[in-house]
C-alpha cells in the first residue's frame, strides 16, 4: 500500500476532488498516442495526456525520461531538431497541430515557450518585449503592449524607468520574467515552461512561482520541473514520467497534484517523489 506523503501545497490551489482527465470545453490541449523519434531512437512512447484550460500542469520525472521532449510536442519545437519525427495527434482547441497545412510558426505564437536559462535578446528591455508583435506585423500601440506585458510579468515597476537599457543588465530573475513578458506580448493561449526557475536563487524562484499562479487566471501553463516542492506548490495537475528499458519516456501516472503527492496509485511515483531514486 502506498503511504501518505508530506508536501506543502499553495493556499491558492484548487485541490478539490475532480476528474484528472478533463473533457469537453475544459480541454485546451490533448496528446493522443504520441511517439517521438530522434533518428532511430524512440524518445517518447504512446503519450496520451489531456491539459485543462487555465490551470498549471507539472511534468516531473528523472533526467532522461523525456520531459522536455514531451513539452516541445505541444508547439512543434521538436521539428527544429533535424532528426526528430513525431507520430500521433496533438489536439489544440479541437484541431490537430500536426495535420497537413498547419503553420508551425502560428502554433508557436499561440503556444509560447520559456526556457530553462533566461535568454533575453542583446537589445533593450523595450525591444525584447516589442520584438514578437513587431515581426508579426502588429500595427497598434507598441508602448501599450510593452507596458501591459511587463505588468503581467510583474516586472513593470522594476524597469519602467530604464526601458531603453540593455536587457542583459538585469538580474537572472528579472531576465526570466522579461522572457515571460516577451512570450506574453504575442498573446498566446498556452505557455510552456522548461525548468524556468532552476537557474535562479530562492528569492527569484518564489517570484516566478507567484507569477505562474497569477498568470494561470488567464493562461494555461505546462511546466517541466525537477523540484518536487515547486510542483506541489504551483501546479493543479501533475504527470509523472519514466523511461522504459529501451529509454523511451512514458507517463506512469497523471492526476490532481494533491493526489500525486499524498496518495499516488503507483509505487514508482512514491519512490520518486520521496527521493528513493531519480
Question: Can you give a write-up of this model?
Answer:
The protein has 278 residues and is of the alpha/beta class. The longest helix has 14 residues. The chain has a domain of 183 residues: Rossmann fold, CATH 3.40.50.300. The chain is globular. The strands form 2 sheets. The protein has a 6-stranded mixed sheet with strand order 6-7-8-3-9-10, with helices on both faces. A 4-stranded antiparallel sheet has the order 2-1-4-5, covered by helices on one side. It has 10 helices and 10 strands. Helix 6 packs parallel to helix 7. Helices cover 31% and strands 25% of the residues. About 4% of the residues have low confidence.
Large-scale geometry: globular
Provide the succession of SSEs.
EEEHEEHEHHHHEHEHEEHH
Average pLDDT works out at: 91
CATH-scheme architecture of the domain at 24-119 and 187-273: 3-Layer(aba) Sandwich
- How many DSSP helices? 10
Helix content: 25-40%
Q: And the CATH topology of the domain at 24-119 and 187-273?
A: Rossmann fold
Number of strands: 10
Strands ordered across the widest β-sheet? 6-7-8-3-9-10
How many strands, which pairing sense, and closed or not: the largest β-sheet?
A: 6 strands, mixed
Oligomer: single chain
Question: Proportion of β residues?
Answer: 15-25%
Rg, rounded, reads: 19 Å
Distance between the termini: 21 Å
Which CATH class of the domain at 24-119 and 187-273?
A: Alpha Beta
Amino acid at each position: 500500500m502506498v503511504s501518505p506523503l508530506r508536501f506543502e501545497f499553495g493556499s491558492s490551489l484548487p485541490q478539490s476532488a475532480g476528474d484528472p482527465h478533463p473533457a469537453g470545453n475544459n480541454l485546451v490541449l490533448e496528446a493522443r498516442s504520441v511517439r517521438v523519434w530522434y533518428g532511430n531512437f524512440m524518445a517518447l512512447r504512446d503519450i496520451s495526456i489531456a491539459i485543462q484550460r487555465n490551470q498549471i500542469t507539472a511534468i516531473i520525472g528523472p533526467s532522461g525520461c523525456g520531459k522536455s521532449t514531451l513539452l516541445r510536442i505541444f508547439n512543434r519545437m521538436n521539428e527544429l531538431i533535424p532528426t526528430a519525427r513525431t507520430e500521433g495527434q496533438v489536439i489544440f482547441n479541437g484541431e490537430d497541430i500536426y495535420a497537413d497545412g498547419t503553420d508551425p510558426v502560428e502554433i508557436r505564437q499561440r503556444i509560447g515557450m520559456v526556457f530553462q536559462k533566461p535568454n533575453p535578446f542583446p537589445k533593450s528591455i523595450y525591444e525584447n518585449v516589442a520584438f514578437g508583435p513587431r515581426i508579426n506585423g502588429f500595427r497598434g500601440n507598441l508602448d501599450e503592449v510593452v507596458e501591459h506585458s511587463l505588468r503581467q510579468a510583474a516586472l513593470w515597476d522594476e524597469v519602467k524607468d530604464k526601458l531603453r537599457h540593455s536587457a542583459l543588465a538585469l538580474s537572472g530573475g528579472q531576465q526570466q520574467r522579461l522572457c515571460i513578458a516577451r512570450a506574453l506580448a504575442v498573446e498566446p493561449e498556452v505557455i510552456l515552461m522548461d525548468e524556468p526557475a532552476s537557474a535562479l536563487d530562492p528569492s527569484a524562484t518564489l517570484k516566478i512561482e507567484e507569477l505562474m499562479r497569477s498568470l494561470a487566471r488567464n493562461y494555461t501553463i505546462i511546466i517541466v520541473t525537477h523540484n518536487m516542492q515547486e510542483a506541489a506548490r504551483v501546479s493543479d495537475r501533475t504527470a509523472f514520467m519514466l523511461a522504459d528499458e529501451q529509454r523511451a519516456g512514458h507517463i506512469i501516472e497523471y492526476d490532481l497534484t494533491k493526489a500525486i503527492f499524498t496518495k499516488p496509485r503507483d509505487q514508482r511515483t512514491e519512490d520518486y517523489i520521496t527521493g528513493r531514486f531519480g
